[in-house]
Design a protein that fits this description.
The chain is mainly alpha-helical and 183 residues long. The chain has one domain. The radius of gyration is 19 Å and the shape is globular. Helix content is 50%, strand content 0%.
Length: 183
């Protein structure tokens, strides 16, 4: 894995942009380091910037397959990094269940993020109350308003300036013009 000092916050943001999570600034200039999935996940989990750390949950929501990489990396982290990784993983897992229909319309059908770390964190199954109960318990452990931050993650990935690759556009069907009015 790359040394933590070998890349910058801009490199991490560019890595997120490249993977379809593009609501954080600055907009990449193209001269940022290309980071592997593992280095990106580890770098975000280590970041001092809270908005960047919360973007890890957004990354897992947009790319649930990367959540599997997070589970593999967990054992290689320090206890503080591990705590952050696990927090963002379970938050994404709960958010995905809670916002399943919305996310499906936004990004298409994606696999569920597997249940992990709930036992270690003494949290309930993500299937209980569609993830809401677990997310509330997780957020209650923080001195900050994490509930609001996670709702903001959903809003930001849903309304970000880049179009997701798998967007399902919903439009009204136009009425045929050749129908004569009936009396």
């Amino acid at each position: 894995m790359t040394n933590a000092t070998a890349y910058t916050r801009d490199d991490l943001v560019a890595g997120l942009h490249l993977r379809g999570v593009c609501y954080l600034t600055p907009t990449p200039h193209g001269d940022e380091l290309a980071l592997s999935d593992d280095v990106l996940i580890a770098g975000i989990a280590r970041a001092e910037d809270a908005r960047l750390r919360f973007a890890l949950a957004g990354l897992f929501l947009v790319h649930p397959d990367l959540a599997e990489r997070a589970a593999a990396l967990d054992a290689t982290f320090s206890s503080a990094e591990q705590a952050e990784l696990r927090k963002q993983y379970v938050a994404a897992m709960y958010l995905q269940r809670l916002w399943r229909t919305h996310l499906r319309l936004q990004f298409g059908e994606t696999p569920l993020i597997p249940e992990r770390f709930t036992t270690e964190l003494d949290l309930p199954s993500p299937d209980l109350m569609h993830g809401e109960y677990g997310l509330r318990l997780l957020c209650d452990r923080s001195v900050y308003n994490d509930w609001s931050s996670y709702q903001q993650v959903i809003d930001l990935i849903s309304n970000q300036p880049c179009a997701p690759n798998r967007v399902m556009m919903v439009t009204a069907t136009p009425q045929p013009e050749n129908h004569a009015p009936t009396h």
